[in-house]
């Protein structure tokens, strides 16, 4: 059975928070302007079905200028963030840190199905801190 201990959960969560805590105090950068600040799909006045009809940037998928990047779950998390804090970047960053910690624990659980205890923990620790998870 793929059991994950509380100690391992705390270790992974602490590592994620330690690595990404500084992001909580940063603003929106680069693509965030188009994906969050200018995206009308985040606003409560926009019908929820638009999240499933538009691309990541809020452009209808049927339009030629659409990038065809279809990520409705990501846009849904942005919309939920908008409901709680509108355009406060810290809440968006905080949710990303929390979600990353949860995914790291799930990854450890998955690795336990395939690998021994120590190897799976090392894999999850590397997954938690790997630079591919950032877009600097």
TrEMBL record:
Alphabetized PROSITE patterns for the sequence: PROKAR_LIPOPROTEIN (PS51257)
Does this entry carry the keyword Ribosomal protein? no
Q: Which residues cross the membrane?
A: 9-30, 92-115
Q: Which UniProt keywords apply?
A: Membrane, Transmembrane, Transmembrane helix
Q: Per its record, how is this protein called by name? A: Transmembrane and TPR repeat-containing protein 3
